[in-house]
Amino acid sequence: MAFIISLAIIAVAVAGYMLMGKGSIAQRIFQLLGGQMPSGIIQLLTYVAFFWGIFEINSRTHRVKYEETSLNLELLPEQEQWVLSPDDVNDLKLKMIDYKKEHDFLMVDVIRKACTKFRADKSISDVLEVVSRQIRINMNKAESKQSIIRYLAWAIPSIGFIGTIIGIAQSLGYADQASSEEGLSLVTSAMYVAFDTTLISLILSIFLMWFFHALQEREEALHSDMEEYVMENLINRIHVE
Predict the structure, then answer these.
(1) 84 within 8 A of 231, measured Cβ to Cβ
(2) Residues 6+ apart with CB under 8 A from 86
(3) pTM of the model
(4) Burial of 23: CB neighbours in 10 Å, binned 0-12, 13-18, 19+
(5) Which tens digits make up the pLDDT trace of 165-187?
C-alpha cells in the first residue's frame, strides 16, 4: 500500500512538472515531489520509506489502542478493601483462560501467569517477580516490532544524502558545459537534485520521528499501566492465612 501511494505521488508530480510552465513556483513544488525524472527516483525511494514507516506506526498504534481497552474491562476486582483468597485467585485463573479464547489481550496473559505462579507456591513475592518479568518481556517484544520503523527513520536521511552525492556528481560532470546556456541549465538542474533530496528527506524524517516517539511513549505508558493495575488489584489484594 505504501509503495502504491508513493508511486501515485510521483506520477502526479511528474505530470505536474511537465504541465507547469518552466520556472514557475508550481513546477518547483512538483520538482520537490520528485517530478523531474529520472533523478526524481531518489525522492520516490524517500516517499516509499516514509509512507511505509507511517503505516507501520499506524498499525502499532491500533494494537496499543486495542490493548488499552483491557484496562477498562474490570478484569480484576477494583473495589476498595476487596481481599482475594487463594480460591479467588484460582477462579481468576480459570476466568482468564476462558477470556483468552476470545480476546488476545496481554493483560489477560499477565494475570493468568500471575495466578498460576501463586497457585504453585503461594508466594506473593514470586508472583510480583513473575508479573515484572512478563511486563519486561512484553516491552522487549514491542521494541523488536518497532525495529523496521527505526530502520526506516534511519534510511530516509541516508537516501537523501545519497541523492545529494549523485546530484553534486552530476553537476560536476556538466561543469565543462557551464559556459553555454544549455549546459548551465543542466548544472542547475543537477544541483536542484542535490539539495532537494536532502531537504525532503530531512523534513520527512522529522515528521516520522515525531510520530515514532509518540508511539514509543504510548507503548511504554501502556506496559507501566498494566503492571500497576495488576499490582494494585491482584498482588496487593491477595491474603494468605
Answers:
(1) no
(2) 118, 119, 122, 238, 240
(3) 0.80
(4) exposed
(5) 877 777 777 666 656 666 556 66
Three-class SS string for 46-113?
HHHHHHHHHHHHHHHHHHHHHHHHHHHCCCCCCCCCCCECHHHHHHHHHHHHHHHCCCCCHHHHHHHH
**Cα 227 from Cα 221, distance rounded (Å):** 10
Q: Would you say 218 and 65 are in contact if contact means Cβ atoms under 8 Å apart?
A: no
Q: What pLDDT digit, counting tens, does each position of 58-74 carry?
A: 999 999 999 999 999 98
Burial class (CB in 10 A: 0-12, 13-18, 19+), 141: exposed
Tell me: pLDDT of 39 over 60.
Answer: no
